Amino acid sequence: MTKRIDWHGIHWLMLGLLALLQALQFVVGFRMSADDAGFVAYAMGGWDTTLQLAQHTAEQTGRISQYLMSPLNAAGAWLAGEAWGRWLILALYYGQWCVFLAWGARLLQWPLRGFFAVSLVLMLALHPLLFHHTPPNAYPLQLTVPILVLLLCRWQLLRRRSQPLWRVAFLYGLQAIAASSGDFPLIFLSTLLIAEHVMHWWRHDAHLRQRRWLRLWWAWPKLCRDIALVLLVMAIYLAYRWQFPSQYEGNTLDISNLALWLQVAVGHVLGGTSAWHWFDGLRWSYLTASDIVIALLSLVLSYWLLSHALRQLPKDHSRRYLVLALIALLLALYTALPASATSRMQSWCSYPGCVYLDSRLAYLWLTAALVACIAWLVSRRPSAIPWVSGVVALAALLNVVHNAYIQQRMAERSAGWLEAERFACSAEFASVAAVHLAREVDREKAVMMHPHESRPVYWKSYIEYLRRSPSCHLADSLNHDSLDEIVFNDSDNSQATQWLKQGWSIPESWGTWSEQHQAQVELPLQHTKADVRAIYVNFNVYLGPSISEQKISVLLNEQTVGQWSFDVNKPENCCRRRLVVPDTLSQHQPVMLTFIFDKVRDPSLVGESPDPRKLAMGLHSIELEYRPQALP
Does the record carry Coiled coil as a key word (predicted)? Predict the structure, then answer.
């Protein structure tokens, strides 16, 4: 007797393989935003530094969400540096989709298998790799963790209608915490609540104690709980905002131009699909042999899965599916409207196809609308199933082609991180000082960093951090370097508090800002002054429209040794300057390095940041160059 084939098991296996094929392209690029590099710096400082960042940012911006958002971002940026961490991030990211589909099937009271397969295939077929501040390749946990928690809670509440009071209170408490982690989680929670109550209005459910009013079914106890949840989160947000008024003007609302507002929102929604980016052209020449294999397998698997799964969708010849599609489409647009209402977003992201974090959330609702349209079509015309399957399968192939090009660009931008890891943890470079290796990392400056970051100082700190980490098993050996370096950040090996004198602010993870028109550093020379040939200053100036007006006078014990000017078009001349130590320098006085700034700038006055300090120069480190005969 022939054993019956387990098509059910093969069905789920093929879905898993299809998701894995896409994950192979998504796992390559990581830390794709300048903020991610900044969060790595805070993660290197440990939890104390990260929590200090959270408190400082929360109080400066008036957003209590930073107490959760900053640690999540630091943890995500650190986790992305490990290969296993990137796979974990992707598992959590795709886990959002799975729980969203389970929640949707429960809400619609549809069989999970067919709906899940159709939706997941469509999501994978139109899911693009994106650079623009979008997870999972940037901010990998900021949205993923809160959204996953919210979806799990809503799914559990739908899955078990009769639950103990303590369980309901626990689930609502988790939702309150997750929704308090940022604006986008709260917005997404509201879309889930809207969808649930619209469905409750639509049909009677014996488990919900509904009452008929205005020709709609109202689940009053559930509605009151959900309203209380949103009001609680908003009350916490507003109370904190009242206690700590925001000093950041970059997110001011601007809805005076309704057409521009809507244009940005629609762009965020459509730009979250790979189909929108096909108009920019597909780079077929960038396909490798493995990309071609992935593309062909995606084509075949998508067609096979859809041709079977579409037949399992509930048949409905009415316009109910179209109403569902319209609701989902409106929720996708609603998700993108708040961020699109800010003046910063309208000035920065108004071109077609520009995307942001909210694009990934709107994508869930947009694909839900497409699934509803497909379900309506195949219900009316079952003969269209092969054609629909073929179109979606072709979209899956084109998506692989689009993602292959972005994958290669992301690999180039991520190479600096891998290069730093190789330098730090390879026995070949164990005897080379981190200060030398740092200048060889990412020489093309492909890794995205904020302008104030000194790349040599950053990479030196990162290499030293990796060498101290358990995964590296290498210690930085003693070296015979001709440079002694003094760092001025808040790390354990910083000498900031000991040698910074007047005119400096509190040390941060990257270094220390000046906050007066004059700032001084005492130089702790380990040799006599006659042995020091030159001093290297690693720094940044506050980048603004007036940078060309900035002049810095540099003095050593009241002797002028430098007059610095800057060109905004030549940033490579900005952040590392050499000062020759004059032979006439007194041998009997402490060496005091003085910076005098022609201009200082208050970023809060012009809405550039919430920082109210008067900034001019950010000091990273100082290196002392000794004469050859004075080397240790």
Answer: no
